[in-house]
Structure formats: structure tokens, C-alpha cells
């Protein structure tokens, strides 16, 4: 089980399309980690893994909050990392931590 920070830029209540993986420097990442320190987990994957419903909930949460904590549950580290990468790619989001 691993909680990660996911960030997707939002402008006037709408996700910015195709801002795929803008490069963030270490200072920017540190700032975002500081903002997220007190955040609670917003979405958690279940036994079914990363389903369309979970991706939809992550998308809604990113649109509303821009920076969220997601808990990915998987038995193997490789499976969990694959889920994280798939979610970020699919939602045009950045993994912060």
C-alpha cells in the first residue's frame, strides 16, 4: 500500500488539456509536497485494482482540487508502480511523490 501525490494543473475550474508532464524542478516539487502534507487520501484503489470507476474518481478529484493524495493498494511493488504510471498517463497528471 502506498499513498502518492498526484498533480494536474487546473485553470478556471477546468483541467488544462494536453499539459502532459510539464517539467517541475525540485523546488516546485518540494513546495507541492509541503502543500499536500496535511491532505487526507481522497481516492483508494480496492481489490479490483485500477478500474474505470477509480480513474473517474481520480479525474473528478483532480479537477476539483488540483493536488490530491491517492492510495494504491497492490500485493507487489511492480504492480503498484504500474498502476500509478497508468493513472498518471491516462489522466495527464504528474506524480509528485
What are the salient characteristics of this protein?
97 residues, four-stranded mixed sheet, two-stranded antiparallel sheet
Draw up the topology in text.
Blueprint: E1 2-7, E2 10-11, E3 14-15, H1 26-36, E4 41-44, H2 52-65, E5 67-72, H3 77-91, E6 94-95
Parallel strand pairs: 4-5
Antiparallel strand pairs: 1-5, 1-6, 2-3
Q: What is the overall silhouette?
A: globular
User: What series of H and E elements makes up the topology?
Assistant: EEEHEHEHE
Share of helical residues = 40-55%
The whole-number mean of residue pLDDT values reads 85
Given the helix and strand composition, which structural class is it?
alpha+beta
Written description of the protein model:
The chain is of the alpha+beta class. 41% of the residues lie in helices and 23% in strands. It has helices spanning 26-36, 52-65, 77-91, and strands at 2-7, 10-11, 14-15, 41-44, 67-72, 94-95. Strand 4, helix 2 (52-65) and strand 5 form a beta-alpha-beta unit. The radius of gyration is 13 Å and the shape is globular. It starts with a strand and ends with a strand. The relative contact order is 0.31. The mean pLDDT is 85.
